[in-house]
Amino acid sequence: MNWFPIYYREILLFQRRLLRLGYVVSALFAPLLYLLAFGLGLGKRVTLPGISYLDYLLPGLIAMTSMTNSYTWVANGLTVGRLHFRTFQVYVQSPVTPAAIMVGQTLAGLTRGLFAALIILTLGLALGSRLHLEPIFLLALLLNCALFAAFGVIVGMRSRSHEDTATFTNFFIMPMAFFCGTFFPVNEMPWPIPYLIQALPLTHTNHLLRWPAYTTDSLISLAVLLAYLIACFTVGMKIIDRYGE
Fold first, then answer.
1. How far apart are CA 21 and CA 71, in angstroms?
2. What ranges in 19-87 are assigned the alpha helix state H?
3. Which run of H or of E encompasses 51?
4. Does residue 27 have a pLDDT over 70?
5. Selection from 104, 82, 128 nearest residue 2 by Cα
6. In total, how many domains does the chain have?
7. Which of 75, 82, 108, 181 could bridge across to 152 with cysteines, CB 3.0–4.6 Å?
8. What is the pLDDT averaged over residues 170-176?
9. Cβ-based neighbour number of residue 212 at 10 Å
């Protein structure tokens, strides 16, 4: 349980920021804007076989929001803590294992990602979405938050400045947000783009949130997300173990 103080510290910081209305609005402004503009505005003119555009869009926004919030909280927090406030160095000097640091940071990012996703989900349901909330839906959401929080640890430990964090975001997070099926189906894009997109984790999260059924494709998507999580967690733990700043 030596990961709990790390997790608890991050949650206390998150709780203090939640008291600021501007912080919550700024964190969720983009997905709320997409939901209102695309779901209610453009959605009336877009037709998809057997599903409304709002029902198609909402799972994608939940996946994207959980990804960006889980990742951003951890990546920015670690970068600032390492380079400016030197709070991360306290972890290293204390009798806490790299695995405990990794678990605490990952769970903190997961918690924020779930919080943001819950707000988008609640608003989408209030707007009339008929989203199916199955157990596999929650499992996929948890895996998505955890793996991008773990990826945030890697970025936060490797970044030498805020510009480095922004570079990782622009090259990894932003393309996944727009090209992994969040706003439109990817199977009609030119070859070989759909095959490349299938290798990205957010694509599998979108699939699981839209069609939460225990099929062969869904089990494969779960396995892919779990593999990404294990890989990110292992790499992050090794980086923390070798940290010597």
1. 21
2. 21-34, 53-80
3. strand 51-52
4. no
5. 104
6. 1
7. 75
8. 91
9. 21
Whether the per-residue pLDDT at 77 is higher than 80: the answer is yes
How far apart (Å, rounded) are the C-alpha atoms in residues 163 and 186? 30
The reported pTM is 0.91
Structural domain containing residue 204: 4-241
Q: Tell me what pLDDT residue 49 has.
A: 72
Give the residue carrying structure tokens 């790499």: 235
Q: Are 168 and 75 in contact (CB under 8 A)?
A: yes
Tokens of 18: 């939640």
φ, ψ of residue 129 to 5 degrees: the values are -70, 145
Instruction: For residue 38, give both structure tokens.
Output: 């695309």
Instruction: Report yes or no: 156 and 168 within 8 Å, Cβ to Cβ.
Output: no
pLDDT grade, residue 131 (50/70/90)? confident
Report CA-CA distances (Å) from 134 to 104, 118, 147, 237: 27, 15, 21, 32
**CA gap 91, 208 in Å, rounded:** 36
Cβ count near 2 (within 10 Å): 14
Three-state SS for 186? Answer: coil
Tokens matching residue 176: 């996944």
Amino acid identity of residue 135, one-letter, is P
